[in-house]
Specification:
5 domains; 18 helices; nine-stranded antiparallel beta sheet; Growth Hormone, Chain: A
Length: 1006
């Protein structure tokens, strides 16, 4: 998986627009109910004295119906995350659901328009009511769907959501300006229609943008790459006689779960730091409509100022999310992916270098001038044996069994006894020692063969699954049987095999022969690779112990052309695809795919084809042109066979890459050629030609110049070496590329590079380079078949004039760059001290680090110093609660100094009303970013906040109703204690609230 065609994380312009318009469209129905209510009342010929009841019932129905839909969406999300195992299906499931509900939101405005215009002169208020209620249901589930998507775009959603009051007020103002004259226009009908139609248009644009953004059901790419950060590597081996050990970025997420781990949801600190932003959300949502607008400004501000407060808030509400969005663009970001304000995943830097500020709240890795956390050479190994212990330990091993006499020739056959056998490692080793993945053990000993001759046994063992060895280990592969273990005095383990008891055999064949293909009688030959793949999740191909038969074989040309037996010419390097089905005991219709590469000869395919070595054909297979006109098929009865003894060798053949040193740790290893889902055949280990190590990343190279220019180069090594028998020995094949004397250096600007000052024209040594510019650096030495290649990223401005000093991942000086056709070249450059970082390989840090965001290495940290200040605004919650108490207090204790300084005091009452409401806006603008990265927190907090907001708003209406219907001269709580007075108001507010709830579902109007 790569991200070349994906916009960076959170920077997709289409999704930015989609989330912004989703925010604009989300609450249009709520605003429509409030702003258009006076005109809708008259449209439906209702008495004007029912205005407050009409608004309350319409708004209440919309708000109440959003609660069950939000609950349903939360339940759906809960089960989606726990029942659906495939992340791609999870994404697809929500992407398409969110598209559906965005169109449903648009459809509600269409139906709302229809319900408004039908019904003749008096209209149909019942239909209008139920459509408004239905729009609330759609609004609730649609909002949860948006929040459940990509949290990195929530700032844009919140900007849109908080801008919609200005938008709706503007369109309402324009409508009133043009059609407000009731003598000339049917204003009540036209203004509401305009509001609905504009809302319909906005929701249509929102639905179109959302569909366009998420139709392919794909998420973003990754955040901008830090070239100095460690990269998780995946390891693979390919080829037939020429083997390539390839290292590539591992884009799959991989999370460790040790004690000091990146399994961050096990950290108490992680959960504790969600409390402040959660409180900000709950208080901000739950408290606001208890007070606003009924109490403040409604009951404490002079009436003539209420509209002015509304106008101020229409503009002011947009500022908090806009400010957060601007800060985010300048790297001051409260949205913390895979963490929160107090905890986060800290970058792991190549070579163990330190982190430095990357601007705002971001961090970046320094370019290391040198580090002890590095290695300069690598050892490649080919393993032929698998070892298992009762404690769960699994290991791979390279074992050699040779005759003590006769020049040390390989021995195959029964082994009677082993004496003087030893297992050891760096440090003490006991049978109960807990061994970790990557630890390397050494096996040595002598024994007696079946005929009584003495034999030697040597082996290198690499742990691939942790555990202890125990008293016995079971081996399979070149050496098969059981060995007995016991502790020795010198911190090692004694290894024995008694004369009686379990058998121990040195097997043959012990190496793979590949697959050789002979085509007809034309002299055309080739090699083949075949992959057998399980088609059912429950299939476990490692359980196959008998031969595998391949049938229904068809051949096609890999380049897509037609393949015919008598007319298609074949030549070296041509490739044919092979497909078929495989069967074994308990397995049927297993998928088979493969490739045949022509290695010698010229001719046509002919009528027959023969397979030998690891996969054999039942004689010469007869070929015939397939009726499809494009392929060739093997006639019925033609079968390929993978014998059981070859399958055993495949099951126990492994490859590893090891960094030499005192730590004795494996860097990475290739899983067995036989896994639960796949069998890979075709690699030849009996004789090996050339070995290539590809993609070994160096520690970043720090480039400086005399003109203050500086840059970082991220280089990878490719090294070709003629194979020797070392690859199959216990010592392995050492790739020693610590220096390149007399190398050639080239610097170019290729298609993917960026140079701001060079839109056209060739690269020159005098070209001005600025931070962020990239170039391609290549260092080669043909005599050693070694190549270093990668990207230069400019960090300080300057040019390439003068000498370039290289430090870090290698040491050298580039002098006298010459220019030809835009390519800068220097010859006879001496490069020394090549170093790579062993910790880039996940097997070396899997208990403490994790890989995500394109295979970058991170380590979990329970402290996040740069983002702790985001907790400070949590004081707004207690402040808003205190302010609410003060406002209610001022209504009940009118003779107090507090009441005299607030109620009907224009400046103070206006300021407190605005401050109270803005506390709500600021808390939401900051609180949601604090919980956005974890949907298990975000969606429940949003749901609880919505319940508090809606239900407490109803309760507030009940309280205000009771308050206003009492005569101040005959106040009902006069003479009561404070507690009894509080209980009275709570009781009466509850009674009226219950009555108001009933009105939503009945025809009562009083």
């Amino acid at each position: 998986m790569t991200t070349d065609n994906k916009p960076p994380f959170g920077e997709h312009p289409l999704k930015i627009s989609a989330f912004t318009f989703a925010g604009l469209a989300m609450m249009l129905n709520i605003r429509l109910v409030y702003s258009a209510a006076p005109y809708a009342l008259l449209r439906f010929k209702l008495p004007e004295n029912l205005f407050s009841v009409f608004v309350r019932i319409m708004a209440g129905s919309l708000e109440l119906w959003c609660l069950p839909s939000m609950t349903i969406a939360n339940v759906m999300d809960y089960f989606r995350r726990r029942l659906l195992s495939d992340d791609n299906w999870k994404d697809w499931y929500y992407h398409y659901q969110s598209i559906f509900w965005s169109w449903a939101n648009f459809l509600t405005f269409v139906i709302l328009w229809i319900s408004f215009i039908i019904g003749g002169e008096a209209g149909n208020v019942t239909a209008f009511y139920w459509v408004v209620a239905a729009s609330g249901f759609v609004f609730g589930i649609n909002m949860v769907m948006v929040y459940a998507m990509e949290f990195q775009y929530l700032p844009w959603y919140m900007i849109g959501e908080n801008s919609f009051p200005m938008v709706t007020s503007l369109m309402h103002y324009v409508g009133t300006l043009f059609f407000g004259n009731r003598r000339k226009w049917n204003s009540d009908y036209i203004i509401v229609t305009i509001d609905i139609v504009i809302s319909l248009a906005i929701s249509l644009v929102a639905a179109v943008l959302w569909t366009w953004a998420y139709w392919d059901a794909k998420n973003d790419g990754y955040p901008p790459s830090d070239p100095n950060q460690r990269v998780c590597k995946t390891f693979s081996v390919s080829g037939t006689t020429d083997l390539t050990y390839s290292l590539n970025p591992n884009y799959a997420d991989s999370h460790a779960d040790g004690t000091d781990n990146c399994g961050y949801k096990k950290s108490y600190a992680y959960w504790l730091h969600f409390i402040p932003p959660s409180l900000m959300v709950l208080i901000g949502m739950g408290l606001v409509y208890c007070i606003y607008p009924g109490i403040a400004p409604g009951m404490i501000v002079p009436f003539y100022l209420i509209d002015k407060i509304e106008m101020v808030l229409l503009i002011a509400t947009a500022f908090p999310p806009v400010i957060i969005g601007i800060m985010k663009q300048y790297k001051i970001n409260p949205y913390i992916p895979m963490g929160n304000w107090g905890t986060y995943h800290k970058k792991a830097c190549k070579g163990g270098s330190n982190l430095e500020s990357g601007g705002g709240t971001t961090e970046q890795c320094k370019c290391p001038n040198g580090s002890s956390s590095s290695s300069s050479s690598a050892i490649l190994r080919l393993h032929n044996t698998t070892i298992k212990a009762s404690d769960g330990l699994i290991a791979i091993a390279t074992i050699k069994v040779t005759n003590s006499t006769g020049g040390g020739t390989p021995y195959t056959g029964l082994i009677n006894t082993i004496n003087n056998g030893t297992l050891s490692k760096t440090g003490d080793l006991k049978i109960n020692t807990k061994l970790q993945v990557g630890e390397i053990l050494t096996l040595s000993g002598r024994g007696t063969a079946n005929g009584g001759n003495e034999i030697n046994i040597k082996g290198t063992i690499i742990v691939t699954s942790p555990g202890s060895l125990g008293q016995t280990i079971t081996l399979d592969g070149l050496l098969a049987g059981t060995l007995t273990l016991s502790d020795a005095l010198a911190g090692s383990i004694n290894v024995t095999k008694e004369t009686t008891g379990d058998s121990l055999n040195a097997n043959t064949p012990s190496a793979l022969g590949g697959i050789t293909v002979n085509i007809g009688g034309s002299g055309v030959t080739g090699n083949a690779t075949i992959t057998i793949t399980a088609t059912k999740d429950r299939d476990d191909l490692t359980s196959i112990s008998e031969q595998v038969n391949i049938r229904d074989i068809k051949l096609t040309k890999a380049d897509g052309g037609a393949l015919r037996i008598n007319t298609t010419a074949l030549k070296p390097n041509d490739t044919l695809n092979l497909i078929g089905t495989a069967t074994a005991t308990r397995f049927t219709n297993i998928k088979v795919s493969g490739m045949i590469t022509i290695t010698s000869g010229n001719g046509t395919l002919g009528n027959t084809i023969t397979f030998t070595d690891d996969v054999t054909s039942s004689g010469a297979l007869t070929l015939a042109d397939d009726p499809d006109g494009e392929s060739v098929k093997v006639q019925t009865g033609g079968t390929l066979t993978l014998q059981a003894n070859i399958l055993t060798v495949l099951q126990n053949t492994n490859f590893s890459l090891i960094s030499p040193g005192s730590d004795k740790r494996v860097l990475t290893y290739e899983p067995r050629l036989v896994t639960e889902s796949r069998i890979t055949i075709g690699i030849k280990t009996s004789t090996i030609g050339k070995v290539t190590l590809s993609g070994l990343s160096l520690i970043p190279v720090c480039i400086t110049s005399t003109n203050n220019f500086s840059a970082t180069a991220d280089l990878s090594l490719t090294h070709n070496q003629s194979a020797s028998t070392d690859l199959k020995t216990t010592g392995g094949l050492t790739i020693n590329s610590t220096s390149l004397s007399g190398a050639t250096v080239t610097i170019t600007k290729d298609e993917k590079d960026k140079v701001a000052s060079l839109s056209n024209g060739d690269l020159q040594t005098s070209t001005n380079l600025v931070p962020g510019d990239t170039l391609t650096l290549t260092i080669t030495k043909s005599s050693t078949e070694t190549k270093l290649e990668g990207k230069i990223t400019v960090t300080s401005p300057g040019n390439l004039n003068g000498n370039l000093t290289l430090k870090g991942g290698l040491t050298g000086t580039i002098r006298d760059l010459s220019v030809r056709g835009g390519t800068l070249t220097a010859s006879n450059v001496n490069i020394t001290n090549l170093k790579y970082d062993p910790e880039e390989f996940h097997v070396n840090h899997e208990s403490t680090h994790c890989c995500f965001w394109g295979g970058k290495v991170f380590k979990w940290s329970d402290t996040n110093p740069k983002n702790v200040p985001w907790h400070i605004p949590v004081i707004l919650g207690p402040f808003q609660i205190c302010l609410a108490v003060v406002l209610v207090y001022s209504l009940h204790y009118t003779d107090s100094n507090i009441s005299r300084s607030i109620v009907n005091q224009p400046k103070m009452s206006t300021a407190l009303s605005i401050i109270f409401y803005m506390c709500h806006e600021i808390q939401l603008a900051l609180g949601f970013p604090g919980i956005a990265s974890d949907p298990n927190i975000l969606l429940p907090m949003q749901l609880i906040g919505a319940f508090l907001m809606v239900l407490l708003a109803f309760y507030s209406v009940g309280y205000i109703t009771e308050y206003k219907r009492n005569d101040p001269l005959n106040w009902p709580t006069d003479g009561m204690t404070t507690w009894n007075s509080l209980c009275y108001w709570l009781k009466m507010a509850s009674k009226i609230t219950n009555k108001n709830f009933k009105q939503l579902f009945t025809t009562e109007t009083s």
